[in-house]
Write a structure and sequence with these properties.
Elements: E1 2-9, E2 14-20, E3 32-36, E4 44-52, E5 55-61, H1 65-72, E6 76-77, E7 79-84, E8 95-101, H2 105-117, E9 121-127, H3 136-142, E10 145-149, E11 159-163, H4 166-175, E12 181-184, E13 200-203, E14 206-209, E15 216-218, H5 224-229, H6 235-260
Parallel strand pairs: 8-9, 8-11, 9-10, 11-12
Antiparallel strand pairs: 1-2, 1-6, 2-5, 3-4, 3-7, 4-5, 12-15, 13-14
């Protein structure tokens, strides 16, 4: 078991989950971990936000049952695998523009810390309908420029990095087709060791696995339309699981209230 050290709630949908997991101390830029709250819970891939000794933090966006379960109930984590995935290729590129949406801010922040140490200049463009940017204070300290946008735009950069959504990466690529671009793909993932093949990605016409070959790929070589077409494959099952869990939470709260009375 891995104890939950703290949860820092940033908004209704975002929180930072900090756990003690010594084996993640060796994590490199842009890697992730696979977490399971209980033995019956779904396995969740989460990008590593920061590592401080044996304390590892993750930025979690509540999007379904498993992430809501982490927010509402997790006091310890039964299983954590990692660090997983190939590290981001860190070097001095020059001027780096990062585009993110949702949870994608976590891997961008993590990678940016390594890139900053190599002398890169960093810009961040975060897509948000309501203007909310998680980790704003940390980001303002790390990046030379931070902007919140409603849609991606064309930029002047030596390298573009994108994370958090396949549509975002595709759209940024279309706006900046001549700029080198490394993107984190967003796929369903079951075991993260290359056995399930659910996280397959078409890269330059060949099948790659996001868990073992990625999650970072040359955006110019990815078949984005194929990835996007598979995003909603389990949408109905995920919706039903979330509704069932919300009912369970309501029953627990009612019992707790009745006992207090």
């Amino acid at each position: 078991m891995y104890p939950v050290l703290k949860k820092e709630h940033l908004s209704e949908d975002y929180f930072i989950l900090s756990v003690r997991a010594e084996h993640l101390q060796r994590a490199q830029a842009g890697q992730f971990a696979l977490l399971q709250h209980t033995e019956l819970s779904e396995l969740i891939p989460l990008s590593i936000l920061e590592v401080d000794g044996d304390e590892v933090s993750f930025l979690v966006k509540v999007v379904g049952r498993s992430t809501l379960e982490l927010k509402e109930e997790a006091q310890q984590i039964s299983y954590i695998a990692g660090p997983l995935g190939r590290p981001f290729p860190v070097k001095n590129y020059g001027k780096v523009a990062c585009f993110g949406v949702g949870w994608g801010i976590a891997p961008l922040y993590n990678v940016a810390k390594f890139l900053k140490a190599e002398g890169n200049s960093l810009e961040l463009y975060f897509l948000s309908e309501d203007g909310f940017l998680p980790l704003r204070e940390r980001l303002d300290t790390l990046f030379d420029r931070v902007e919140v946008l409603k849609e991606p735009k064309r930029v002047d950069a030596d390298l573009i990095i994108s994370a958090g959504g396949n549509r975002l990466s595709r759209d940024v690529l279309k706006l900046n087709p001549e700029t080198p671009h490394v993107a984190m793909v967003n796929t369903h993932m079951l075991d993260a060791v290359g056995l399930c093949l659910v996280c397959r990605v078409l890269v330059d016409g060949s099948v790659k696995l996001a868990c073992s070959d990625g999650p970072w790929f040359d955006a110019h070589k990815i078949d984005w339309e194929s990835l996007i077409s598979r995003e909603d494959l389990f949408a109905e099952q995920e919706r039903l699981a979330l509704e069932e869990y919300k009912k369970l939470l309501r029953r627990k709260n009612l019992r707790k209230t009745s006992l207090e009375v």
